[in-house]
Specification:
- The chain is an alpha/beta fold.
- The protein has one domain: Decaprenyl diphosphate synthase-like (Undecaprenyl pyrophosphate synthetase), CATH 3.40.1180.
- The chain is 41% helix and 15% strand.
- It contains seven helices and six strands; from the N terminus they run βααβαβαβααββα.
- It has a six-stranded parallel beta sheet with strand order 3-4-2-1-5-6, with helices on both faces.
- It is globular and about 55 Å long.
- 33% of the residues are buried.
């Protein structure tokens, strides 16, 4: 499988390291409200992902992390789970060329051991094929859970200590960060959850310690780049103190 590598190089605009993480919620409700199968909502949600990723440079977003499938989502019906896995594969195959043209680097975070080997191999392929891009860093969280991620990182740390590669005295916040799935990117500045739900749902528990949160009633299939711009305008007006006090 090949595609055009036409990323024009570094964006001439001032670099931004803004990291926005999104819990994309409401696809199923959006479809059910219209009397359609839930998978129709997921397909519409994938279209919104495409639009938002394309608009990231204009929105000032360099890192975009999307919660696509949690470790708890296996509890859904077999039909919906299989449909979602097929949608992930179709999205990557259809969007790979666009990602290269637009300078998007894609990575997948989460535990891949439960995934179909063909889907996991597809993730490996697209990560390699887009590795030269640096305009937008898109991460899809698939079979991801914050607690699971911390447990996996802890096991890896314990293994390295046991094998003499790491001293217990070296373990600190920075050490844990290096062992997480997200070690290659900054912590999220902003976490957005759609559909009116007001919980974090096991998402980026370590990384979002000082993130700002926005909970919007907009269902994900109705979430447009303009919706994100409105949220970002309000976000930029906030004072982020990180536990300190503004002078």
């Amino acid at each position: 499988m090949t595609f055009d590598r036409s990323y024009p190089g570094p964006d001439p605009r001032p670099a931004s390291n803004l990291h926005v993480a999104v819990i994309m919620d409401g696809n199923g409700r959006w479809a059910s409200n219209r009397g359609w199968p839930r998978l129709v909502g997921h397909r519409k949600g994938a279209e919104r992902v495409r639009q938002l990723v394309s608009e990231c440079p204009d929105l000032g977003i360099r890192y975009l992390t999307l919660y696509a499938f949690s470790t708890e989502n296996w509890k859904r019906t077999t039909e919906e789970v299989m449909g979602l896995m097929a949608l992930f594969a179709r999205y990557i195959k259809r969007e790979a060329g666009r990602m290269n043209r637009e300078g998007v680097r894609l990575r997948v975070i989460g535990d891949r051991r439960q995934l179909d080997p063909k889907l996991s191999a597809l993730f490996d392929w697209v990560e390699t094929e887009t590795a030269h891009n640096d305009r937008v860093h898109l991460s899809l969280a698939i079979n991801y859970g914050g607690r699971d991620e911390i447990a996996r990182a802890t096991r890896d740390i314990a293994r390295d200590v046991a094998e003499g590669r790491l001293s217990p005295d070296e373990i600190c916040d920075a050490t844990m960060t290096r062992y997480l799935d997200t070690s290659y990117m900054p912590d999220p500045d902003l976490v957005v959850r759609t559909s009116g739900e007001t919980r974090v749902s096991n998402y980026l528990l370590w990384q979002a310690a000082y993130s700002e949160y926005v909970f919007t009633p907009v269902l994900w299939p109705d979430f447009t780049p303009d919706t994100m711009k409105t949220i970002l305008d309000a976000f930029h007006a906030r004072e982020r103190r990180f536990g300190g006090v503004m002078s």
